[in-house]
């Protein structure tokens, strides 16, 4: 499939801001064909130097997060840099920014600046707490917003400090919600030609995934508590250690599945116990069921447990590391790995879902070097005036190698 046939081909996106939430939204759009122009400060997005680095001092993560983007560098603290950014925004259908609320307005680049010059612009804004409300001014990293958004409260073991996942979920979820909001706004703009602001907050992106937590509190005054490796109100679903020290996750909470599970675990007494026939009864007697499964798993290896449960058609699986994923044929058969080349060396990066049967997304190039597309993007804005371009480089308005 050519880039012109991709679902978002013909859509130009300006990505402003750094770190994860805004850039992840841009990555999703770029993967499915949008022309994403990333505006970086002259010293680049910090993620270029985060975590493990290659021999050139660039993070491996950047090659994935920056894929398919045209990267330019502008000093937005300079009026000429902001003027170039404004020209780019006026030539685009979408803007993504994740600065603290008020920053874009201070620079003369807020939504009101484009009402007349680009009325169909979809202006996506990502922040910790949203553009309005008493917390709007606060800085909000994922670690903080996962707490106020409700995730940290329910995640962990009773009586112990809340646990975070070793990922910035708040940022990634905000990026997903932003990309979804942008596509919705683009669809609406096709109908009436009017753009709009997409306001995404990290804490709300977490809040949006709380399932029944809010109505349970409102209707029954129940506050969902942390439950370790289980899920409140659903039994059995837990993680167990096997004889060989490996872990398995077992989800046997359907009524018929539960019976098959307990027969496989050689506990027909619990399989046929009328008290445990339905989920409410199993919740009441969770400790009995959980102890039986712990005992069973402790007597067999992980592979033996998984083989028995597969035969019994009970949902179960291992706990995978990145190394395990690389070795699993199902990951490969599903096309979850893509290979790019960096300085002549291969690098595997993850494919991006969802999978579309007729117009799938694809990686066209890995995250490029800093300033890589300055001339390609900015010279046309300057009507190919090389002298003016060089003067802006010399003045520090346009970044340079």
Q: Could you characterize the architecture of this molecule?
A:
This protein has helices at residues 21-31, 60-65, 79-90, 103-106, 142-148, 151-154, 169-192, 202-207, 213-220, 255-264, 268-271, 279-284, 286-298, 302-311, 322-327, 329-333, 374-381, 386-394, and strands at 12-16, 35-40, 69-73, 94-97, 122-127, 196-201, 237-241, 247-251, 316-318, 337-342, 345-350. The protein is α/β, with parallel strands linked by helices and 401 residues long. The chain has two domains: 3-208 and 335-394, Rossmann fold, CATH 3.40.50.10540; 237-241 and 247-318, formyl-coa transferase, domain 3, CATH 3.30.1540. The strands form three sheets. Strands 3-2-1-4-5-6 form a six-stranded parallel β-sheet, sandwiched between helices. It has a three-stranded antiparallel β-sheet with strand order 7-8-9, covered by helices on one side. Strand 7 and strand 8 (247-251) form a beta hairpin. Helix 1 (21-31) crosses helix 7. 34% of the residues are buried.
């Amino acid at each position: 499939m050519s880039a012109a046939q991709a679902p978002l081909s013909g859509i130009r996106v300006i990505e402003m801001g750094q770190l994860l939430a805004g850039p992840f939204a841009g990555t999703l759009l770029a993967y499915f064909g949008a022309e994403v122009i990333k505006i970086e400060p002259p010293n680049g997005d910090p993620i270029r130097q985060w975590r493990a680095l290659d021999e050139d001092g660039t993070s491996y993560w950047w090659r994935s997060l920056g894929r398919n983007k045209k990267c330019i560098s502008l000093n937005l603290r300079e009026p000429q840099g902001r003027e170039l950014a404004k020209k780019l925004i006026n030539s685009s259908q979408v803007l993504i920014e994740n600065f603290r609320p008020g920053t874009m307005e201070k620079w003369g680049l807020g939504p009101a600046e484009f009402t007349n010059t680009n009325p169909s612009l979809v202006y996506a804004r990502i922040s910790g707490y949203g553009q309005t409300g008493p917390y709007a001014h606060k800085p909000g990293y994922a670690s903080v917003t996962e707490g106020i958004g409700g995730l940290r409260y329910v995640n962990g073991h009773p009586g112990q400090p809340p646990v975070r996942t070793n990922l910035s979920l708040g940022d990634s979820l905000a990026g997903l919600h932003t990309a979804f909001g942008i596509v919705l706004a683009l669809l609406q703009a096709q109908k009436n030609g009017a753009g709009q602001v997409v306001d995404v907050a990290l804490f709300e992106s977490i809040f949006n995934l709380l399932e029944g937590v809010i109505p349970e509190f409102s209707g029954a005054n129940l506050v969902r508590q942390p439950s370790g490796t289980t899920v409140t109100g659903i039994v059995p679903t837990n993680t167990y250690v096997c004889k060989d020290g490996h872990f398995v996750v077992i989800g046997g909470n359907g009524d018929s599945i539960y019976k098959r599970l307990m027969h496989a675990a050689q506990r027909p007494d619990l399989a046929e116990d009328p008290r445990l026939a339905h989920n409410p009864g199993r919740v009441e007697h969770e400790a009995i069921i959980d102890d039986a499964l712990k005992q069973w798993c402790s007597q067999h290896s992980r592979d033996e447990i998984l083989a028995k449960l597969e035969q019994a058609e009970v949902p179960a699986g291992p706990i995978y590391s990145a190394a395990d994923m690389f070795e699993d044929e199902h990951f490969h058969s599903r096309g979850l790995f893509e290979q790019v080349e960096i300085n002549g060396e291969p690098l595997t990066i993850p494919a991006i879902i969802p999978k579309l049967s007729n117009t799938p997304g694809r990686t066209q190039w890995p995250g490029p070097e800093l300033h890589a597309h300055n001339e390609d993007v900015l010279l046309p804005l300057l009507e190919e005036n090389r002298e003016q371009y060089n003067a802006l480089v010399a003045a520090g308005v346009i970044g340079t190698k």
